């Protein structure tokens, strides 16, 4: 289980996350919702060691992630797909996947797993990443992250800017991965997606998780969406 306990974090003198706590369980999709600027992306960066944690702790099993340098966090089983995907644009699909496999020295078996998950990528192994469609790039970014065989997957608004068929494909992928026992942390602004795939929703405001709702407590007309997301 990923446990974030009372963290305070930010950029230089600017504190963004304040005494923030929540947990993400294996085999569950935990959605993070909140208005622009609530600190959702900063939370993901803090988990990855990309923003310094000033107090509190981030634990995954026996590992204290907040004490590790950023390059060590993926080695402990946390994979991250940031907003904007950050692919190696000039490299091919196959080469991007190979880079993902190298990080934790995963082999052919893992490569087959991610290509089975995204058959469209298997058809495009020699295509240069920058020439893929937006949806295909998102698939590749997720595939590359999954090459780590992570315990925890962080996805920052993976559906942003995608057409409906791609959005449903990403949803289905997240649900399939849940069955494998993965803990997924998903920053998501779309209420329909959250209602379909979230086991739990952490609502953020002002750099804190202000409310955690279980799936059974949420409906489309929930006042929580109005309160925390403004929809
Ligand atoms: N590199 C940075 N340096 C200084 N402040 C930053 C930096 N990145 C983000 N911030 C500030 O941190 C706060 C939270 O930003 P963050 O991107 O985490 O919010 P968010 O909830 O992900 O928003 P959005 O929904 O718009 O993506 C904002 O006030 C933002 O201006």
UniProtKB/TrEMBL annotation:
Residues 2-231 form the ABC transporter domain. GO terms for biological process: L-amino acid transport. PROSITE patterns: ABC_TRANSPORTER_1, ABC_TRANSPORTER_2. InterPro entries: AAA+_ATPase, ABC_transporter-like_ATP-bd, ABC_transporter-like_CS, BCAA_Transport_ATP-bd_LivF, P-loop_NTPase. One of its GO terms (molecular function) is ATP hydrolysis activity. The keyword Cytoplasm does not apply. It comes from the Bacteria. Keywords: Amino-acid transport, ATP-binding, Nucleotide-binding, Transport. It holds the Pfam family ABC_tran. Belongs to the ABC transporter superfamily. This is ABC transporter ATP-binding protein.
């Amino acid at each position: 289980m990923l446990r974030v306990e009372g963290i305070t974090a930010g950029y230089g003198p600017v504190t963004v996350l304040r005494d923030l706590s929540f947990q993400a369980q294996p085999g569950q999709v935990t959605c993070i919702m909140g208005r622009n600027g609530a600190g959702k992306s900063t939370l993901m960066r803090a988990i990855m060691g990309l923003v310094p944690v000033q107090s509190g702790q981030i634990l995954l099993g026996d590992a204290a992630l907040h004490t590790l340098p950023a390059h060590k966090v993926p080695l402990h089983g946390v994979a991250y797909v940031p907003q904007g995907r950050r692919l190696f644009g000039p490299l091919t699909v196959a080469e991007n996947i190979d880079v993902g496999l190298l990080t934790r020295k995963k082999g052919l078996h893992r490569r087959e797993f991610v290509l089975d998950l995204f058959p469209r990528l298997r058809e495009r192994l020699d295509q240069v990443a920058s020439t893929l469609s937006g949806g295909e790039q998102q698939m590749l970014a997720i595939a590359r992250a999954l090459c780590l065989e992570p315990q925890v997957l962080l996805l920052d608004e993976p559906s942003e800017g995608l057409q409906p068929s791609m959005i449903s494909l990403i949803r289905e992928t997240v649900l399939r991965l849940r069955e494998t026992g993965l803990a997924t942390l998903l920053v998501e602004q779309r209420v329909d997606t959250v209602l379909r795939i979230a086991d739990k929703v952490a609502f953020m405001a002002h750099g804190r998780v202000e409310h955690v709702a279980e799936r059974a407590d949420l409906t489309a007309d929930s006042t929580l969406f109005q309160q925390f997301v403004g929809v």
